[in-house]
Design goal:
Blueprint (H helix, E strand, L loop, with lengths): L3 E3 L2 H8 L9 E8 L5 H14 L5 E7 L2 E8 L5 H4 E5 L6 H13 L9 E7 L6 E8 L5 H8 L32 H10 L2 H11 L8 H18 L19 E8 H10 L4 H19 L6 E9 L12 E9 L5 H16 L7 H9 L3 H12 L4 E6 L7 E2 L2 E9 L7 E8 L2 E8 L7 H16 L11
Parallel strand pairs: 5-6, 9-11, 11-14
Antiparallel strand pairs: 1-4, 2-7, 2-13, 3-4, 6-7, 8-15, 9-10, 12-13, 14-15
Helix pairs in contact: 1-12, 6-7, 6-8, 9-10, 10-11, 10-14
Length: about 475
Amino acid sequence: MPGTRALSDADAIVWIVERDPALRSTIIGLAFLDRAPDIAVLRHRVDRASRLVPKLRQTIRATTPDGGVPMWVTQPDLDLDYHVRHVACPPPANVDAVLRLAEAAAMRAFDPARPLWEMLLVEGLADGRAVLLLKVHHAITDGLGAFQIAAHLVDLEPDADQVPSLPAPPAGEVKRRLWLSLEAVTERLQAAGGRMVDVAGAARRSLAGIAADPASVTKALESVPGVARLLAPAGSRRSPLFQQESSLSWRLALLEVPFPALRGAAKAAGGSLNDAFLGFVAGGLQRYHEQLGAPTPAVRITMPVSVRTGSDATAGNRFTPVRFDLPIDVADPVERMRRLGALATERRADPALGLTDTLAAVLNGLPAPVVTAVFGSMLKGVDVVASNVPGSPVPMYLAGSRVERLFPFAPPAGAALSITLVSHDGTCCIGVQMDPANVTEPERLVRCLQGALDEIVALGGREGEETP
């Protein structure tokens, strides 16, 4: 069919599991601007980006009325009046008012008849500032893919007079799906029982026609324990405070810290920025549990690990969710960062991460209700999703306005909360998304996270250090 192509297996799973509303995958971003941008230039840049990134002009349709292979279908026209809107910030016209708008956007499901993204320009903040609220479905892209898309929207210079011409809208292409599997994986899944038996059956059916490759088989055998960890049901959450069923409501909060200060603190502990990030997350959760009289040794965390390469297409999902128990009972911040850094490094080195596409293909061959149940059992036992996404080290301009801060909110997708860091122009911007059914005192949690962040930075952040 002209103008259509099948979703990748990873994108399809993100879409299919939304049969359970608690597993919705809506990404929210808040770009704080030094002034309101030229709306005509903004619309032109968005129109141009939609012609260069086909998914921005596509919807998702099933091939049969009862489901079938989900396909990207190119729409003949894009209604920019729907997708790019602007409003005056409601009273009191401050950051809290913007967060309330963002919470409402995060709680609203996408219209499946339209492309799965929206922009809302919020004007009228103090000193003429504005905020661009971006809402994107995870089926379109992951965190790093979002920055690839953003490259078509922003400039590195403030002059917005020179705007690129519009290319022709994309016509789309037909793309066949690739089904792969490994016998060693299916045996382990079969032994796990329950829903894993269905997964194993799909894997066995997909083996037909696969040529023998000794190197691949060796890698598969080495990966079996990791695959079991990836797909095993998580059970209940580890935190005694996060034991309620997920609601469909969200509370959002912002934290920030100078990039050189956080990186300097990481160096003081002999670690990386990600070690400092995990150290602050663990420290904040430790404080929160202790203040509410429920100390716990660990929480269960999912940490997305990018597997994107330079040859991957713009947008799409190229990450592996790594799940493990995060110790939060280490009082000393230096020792905490070192232990968590070693644990994260160990999980990233798991050979099973190389089988992400294979496993996605296997799971995607199952009926949609089974896929939803399998992923629900994996995701709803997670306490927190923590993601660290590299951003731009230099200033960016959007239709003539400087992007001063860029705050991300990754979807918790069944977890009690998500904490996401993006480094932008010398500042680490941190978005916190909380389910109030489980995080019953969100303001307290934010204070605890801020206290842990201050503790980490105090280890040796150097304000004057240059941003790489």
